[in-house]
């Protein structure tokens, strides 16, 4: 009798917990609203029916010990299932809220950097020392750092003004200065220079100033993401850690989605594309000047978005911002991805990370680190950056295929953890849940099409570096064709059918910048030429922005003597 009462107590307890778990599960399903109504209603009815059956069995066989033991076991199992479902739906809602939260600010980190063997260990040790600062580049960031240094530890030191980021690194290495003040967004520009590839290993940070700048990146939302076509800009920063930290945008891809035709067009722009910069809301930026598109990321994703919009003459509806950490964590959370390497594109070792195994012709299963290295690799290919763009497109498609496959059920918990900090987007939570609902209900067979802009390599002045660097001067026919392909998909047509530009390409002066007055350049033989007779200092307005109308020229790069990637890529 006592045993029966004991089982009865536990049966009551877990029946109550079961009802609570079922109620929470139904509430989370209703709140998240990811299931189509023709699926959600039967799910609700099934949950209610299970609970009713448990209650009826409990009432009918309350005096049967065997039945009560079985009912207790069933209640425990169902409680765990319903509770786990409610928990992961709750986490899904939190993850969607996190990645769709609009960032109104950009994170800026300005470091005081010294050599490893320096006797300078703190700000007070800078007294009487020489500190290198950039004369014009990121002037606002330098001023913010100096203000915070003064507030943290008032100390007097000599400020040595330098014209470019590589000049700062050279001055520090040579001992011309004892320390430098550098925006961390420019660190990758330094380490990619052959002479300073060991910069991060040979230097250390003794102080870092942090401040935020405004970031007004609003979506140009469509009325319904399941029926209306739209463009998404994917901006991939070349950093690890917080995706909100300003850095170069090494991946610039326009994803054109037409749900009605189940078509996705991936249009990639080379990172070194030499384009007219639209600064957006950046406070220190070369407005209207020609620079690498990767450098727009230093100004924030709004600058990248507006620059791409002007380049391709399109509207960007939404943005996705990711970084190195995003790729590795998402791919690993999916259990890896599978990519098919075409004949002749095998890589024994990645130059991006020589510690990792490369890829072979045919199908390869890649974990996060190998997928990232594959997407970053360019030095192993004759086609360089063009092949890297194709690799990036393959990785993105592989991630999409894996994330929409049945295997996602097994990997869902780890994927949630990865997504929480992997990217941010201007898509709203309602738009994402609507798309998920559409994917579940319609299960469209998405057709992926790809295109990439191309051009000719050269060495031209980059305002964000303060010197010349390797760039890709875009073939304006490829720019026009990219525009036409995007518009074709938006209009419900097939991008692959557009093989010739339907719109007029820009005039010859826009095709190659040396035809534009005021731009110094190097020809492909390394000979220096100039579009002007003399050089004048770039003009900056009171807000530390270049004045595109009054800046008459540029400077010769004393560090780069050819157009190779090795020494002049910023």
Q: How would you characterize the overall build of this protein?
A:
It is built from 16 helices and 21 strands. The chain is α+β, with helices and mostly antiparallel strands and 570 residues long. A six-stranded mixed beta sheet has the order 16-11-6-7-8-17, sandwiched between helices. Strand 20 and strand 21 (528-529) form a beta hairpin. Helix 9 packs across helix 10 (368-376). The radius of gyration is 28 Å and the shape is globular. The chain starts with a helix and ends with a helix.
Q: What would you call the structural class?
A: alpha+beta
- Strand order in space, largest sheet: 16-11-6-7-8-17
Shape: globular
Total of DSSP H or I helical runs spanning 4+ residues? 16
Low-confidence stretches: 507-569
Q: How much beta, percentage-wise?
A: 15-25%
- What's the rounded overall pLDDT mean? 81
N-C termini distance: 81 Å
- How many strands? 21
Percent range of helical residues: 25-40%
Q: Biggest β-sheet: count, sense, barrel?
A: 6 strands, mixed
* Radius of gyration, whole Å: 28 Å
Summarize the structure.
By secondary structure, the chain is of the alpha+beta class. Helix content is 39%, strand content 21%. It has a 6-stranded mixed sheet, with helices on both faces. A 5-stranded mixed sheet has the order 3-2-4-1-5, sandwiched between helices.
